[in-house]
């Protein structure tokens, strides 16, 4: 036997020499949920360890994450039902608790990278990412609303905006609006291949943002398909996206790899709420070693080709240390 692959696994020192992929804290973006009020820290039941914070406590949370080496945050607002309307007006009204909080966060931690989500669902009484009319999701009319939302977030200090709505043409539309208004340096991380997935439910619990009727299948992608991810990625590249994102991550490692091989932009993957909940639930039952399952799944996402990972595990990994 001339070829004995086990020789390269015989000691920890040799294994680390041949190790191809290594996680780093600088790969992570930590999603955080913001609520109005003071001194609020409300658990998300389907996501043990994850909370909705009021601004004062979120500042403390961000501070402790920065000290641990997490430098990028994606901040989602949870709005009460009475603030929502069909046109997601609250998403671009000046002086909302969310936009004010972004300003404060950015002023307090200018070195942190702050990302925001561009889609109507947290502000929409219909719970959809776009404008609903007679049960249909209107594309071009939604773009106008997303444009106003994007500008409001850029004004509040967002470093990266993340269009998660899956409307056609939005990356180019938002890039143009940002540029015309002097925000040439605001980046776009496009949710390029966002699938109509069962794995978003805990997130929708966190924000109370589930669709009131129907589903998101006319805009989010069909889990059966990989080839249309190539069309979405090509359009995002042409329309000026700075990063391409695949979402969810674990059930879509093939899509991450596909985009990584075909496109020169950095690839991000969103390790979504349901993926977090699965590991937490089985660890709580003693069925999995939660820490090992967490690190193995994050490593797999990186090995598939994602340089950037949005994950609710970010702080926990930083606490353990890499
Ligand atoms: C909103 C949005 C969703 C997520 C991120 N942005 C939910 C959805 O599309 O229904 C999901 C994140 C997660 O599950 O962790 N457009």
TrEMBL record:
<comment type="similarity">
    <text>Belongs to the ALAD family.</text>
</comment>
<dbReference type="InterPro" id="IPR013785">
    <property type="entry name" value="Aldolase_TIM"/>
</dbReference>
<feature type="active site" description="Schiff-base intermediate with substrate">
    <location>
        <position position="194"/>
    </location>
</feature>
<dbReference type="InterPro" id="IPR001731">
    <property type="entry name" value="ALAD"/>
</dbReference>
<feature type="active site" description="Schiff-base intermediate with substrate">
    <location>
        <position position="247"/>
    </location>
</feature>
<keyword id="KW-0460">Magnesium</keyword>
<dbReference type="GO" id="GO:0005829">
    <property type="term" value="C:cytosol"/>
</dbReference>
<dbReference type="InterPro" id="IPR030656">
    <property type="entry name" value="ALAD_AS"/>
</dbReference>
<keyword id="KW-0456">Lyase</keyword>
<feature type="binding site">
    <location>
        <position position="232"/>
    </location>
    <ligand>
        <name>Mg(2+)</name>
    </ligand>
</feature>
<keyword id="KW-0627">Porphyrin biosynthesis</keyword>
<comment type="subunit">
    <text>Homooctamer.</text>
</comment>
<keyword id="KW-0350">Heme biosynthesis</keyword>
<protein>
    <recommendedName>
        <fullName>Delta-aminolevulinic acid dehydratase</fullName>
        <ecNumber>4.2.1.24</ecNumber>
    </recommendedName>
</protein>
<dbReference type="GO" id="GO:0006782">
    <property type="term" value="P:protoporphyrinogen IX biosynthetic process"/>
</dbReference>
<dbReference type="GO" id="GO:0008270">
    <property type="term" value="F:zinc ion binding"/>
</dbReference>
<dbReference type="GO" id="GO:0004655">
    <property type="term" value="F:porphobilinogen synthase activity"/>
</dbReference>
<dbReference type="Pfam" id="PF00490">
    <property type="entry name" value="ALAD"/>
</dbReference>
<comment type="pathway">
    <text>Porphyrin-containing compound metabolism; protoporphyrin-IX biosynthesis; coproporphyrinogen-III from 5-aminolevulinate: step 1/4.</text>
</comment>
<keyword id="KW-0479">Metal-binding</keyword>
């Amino acid at each position: 036997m001339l070829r004995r692959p086990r020789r390269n696994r015989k000691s920890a020192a040799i294994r680390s020499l041949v190790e191809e992929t290594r996680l780093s804290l600088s790969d992570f973006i930590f999603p955080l949920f913001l609520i109005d009020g003071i001194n609020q820290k409300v658990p998300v039941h389907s996501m043990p360890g994850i909370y909705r914070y009021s601004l004062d406590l979120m500042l403390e949370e961000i501070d402790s994450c920065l000290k641990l080496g997490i430098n990028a945050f994606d901040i989602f607002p949870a709005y009460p039902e009475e603030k929502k309307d069909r046109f997601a007006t609250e998403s671009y009204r000046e002086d909302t608790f969310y936009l004010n909080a972004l300003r404060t966060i950015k002023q307090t931690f200018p070195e942190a990278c702050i990302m925001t989500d561009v889609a109507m669902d947290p502000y929409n009484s219909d719970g959809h990412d776009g404008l609903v009319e007679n049960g249909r999701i209107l594309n071009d009319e939604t773009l106008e609303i997303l444009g106003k939302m994007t500008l409001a977030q850029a004004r509040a200090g967002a470093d990266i905006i993340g269009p998660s709505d899956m409307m056609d043409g939005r990356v180019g539309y938002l890039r143009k609006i940002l540029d015309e208004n002097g925000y040439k340096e605001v980046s776009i991380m496009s949710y390029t291949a966002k699938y109509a997935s069962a794995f978003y439910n805990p997130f929708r619990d966190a924000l109370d943002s589930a669709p009131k009727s129907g589903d998101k299948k006319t805009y989010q992608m069909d889990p059966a398909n990989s080839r249309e991810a190539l069309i979405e990625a090509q359009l995002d590249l042409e329309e000026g996206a700075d990063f391409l994102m695949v979402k969810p991550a674990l059930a879509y490692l093939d899509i991450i790899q596909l985009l990584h091989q075909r496109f020169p932009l950095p690839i991000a993957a969103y390790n979504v709420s349901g993926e977090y909940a699965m590991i937490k639930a089985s660890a709580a039952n003693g069925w999995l070693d939660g820490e090992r399952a967490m690190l193995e799944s994050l490593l797999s996402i990186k090995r598939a080709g994602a340089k950037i990972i949005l994950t609710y595990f970010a702080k926990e990994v930083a606490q353990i240390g890499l």
